[in-house]
Design a protein that fits this description.
The protein has 78 residues and is mainly alpha-helical. Helices cover 63% and strands 0% of the residues. The longest helix is centred in the first third of the chain and has 25 residues.
Length: 78
């Protein structure tokens, strides 16, 4: 990091810019949270089917189960 970049942020203009960014960030976060919080329970409910679809993808075809009388943990006959 060069000395110029450190001095630039500590100058009066740099500090004013950082304060401006902090104020803008505060208002953006508070305004957007006011719109997101009321619908958050519905978003969670909508997330459930999507999670089911994507998490069940790796289970494969359910028609290819092994239907013999073997214990699935040990592989020995029951």
């Amino acid at each position: 990091m060069s000395k110029y970049s450190v001095v630039r942020w500590r100058s009066p203009a740099g500090i004013a810019f950082l304060v401006f960014l902090a104020v803008i960030t505060f208002f953006l976060v508070t305004e957007h949270l006011a719109h997101i919080i009321p619908v958050l329970p519905w978003l969670l409910l909508l997330l459930c089917p999507l999670m089911h679809l994507f998490m069940m993808r790796g289970h494969g075809d359910h028609g290819s189960h092994d239907h013999d009388n073997r214990d699935h943990l040990t592989g020995r006959p029951r």
